[in-house]
Amino acid sequence: MSIVTLVLPDFLLIALGWCLLHQLKYKAEFFSTAEKLVYFVLFPALLFASIVRAPLSFGDASNLMLATVMLMVAGIALAWLAVPFLKPDPVVQASLAQCAYRFNTYMGLSLSLSLAGQDGQSIMAIIVGCAVPIANVAAVTGLAKRQDNRILVELFRNPLILATVAGLACNLGGVEIPTFAMDTLQRLGACAIALGLICVGATLSIDGLASSARVMSWMIVVRLLLMPCVALMIGWVMPLSPTEQQMLLLFSALPTASTAYILAVRMGGDGRSVAATTSLTTMLSALSIPLWLYLRAF
Questions:
Q1: Does residue 234 lie within any of the structural domains?
Q2: What confidence tens digit (pLDDT) does each residue in 3-34 have?
Q3: Cβ-count burial of 179 within 10 angstroms (0-12 exposed, 13-18 middle, 19+ buried)?
Q4: CATH number of the CATH domain containing 33
């Protein structure tokens, strides 16, 4: 099966979400409620179950997490290099910088399963779980007008971080999860990806392009071009398995998460530009993800 065929179902689900909202006139409140269900219940269940069943050792997990940290730090640094080169408005820069390193977790876990089965999804779950706190700290710090406890609050109540920490603790600690509990979590997780991708499609918008086009272009280049280049280099120098290298590359090429828009609005940033950038990275990734995976095969 070709790479394009493997990634096509995810983008068809995104297109379905757009059609449900714009063509079939589903209410926006429906998608808002569904996204909360995915974020706070279904997706944490998927993360926890994926990490718990992964065949992990401390050494394997530490190498993969170190590679993820290196990739995220590179993405954050590249995003803020826009400041000396483009001299953007501080609010626009702080809002859009997160678009360069935040990532669509729904697509990551869905595509990893299509490409490498349960092992690939478990590896992606660890990458996502390691990257979520880094992305949140960087995004909240950039948008915060003053130092306060919001960063810690964001971290300690983030369901994805909590699910990741719990999953790693149970896995590495050898904790046995009852079969009925794992079955329940896996059923919840099975709903997460499809519903999450449909919600992504419903949020697509390209309004607000003109005022911050240069900064948006910079972040799109970092997200879809430079981050995969960095991932390839890290894969060459780090002791990662071929599947881990593939999942790290896939992770690096994911489009920006819609939660970047939510955070920008909540913290007084430029929400329209973030929404447009998120939508553009999602649409362009339909071409870039197959390209990067194809290039890696050679």
A1: yes
A2: 778 788 888 998 999 999 989 989 989 988 98
A3: exposed
A4: 1.20.1530.20
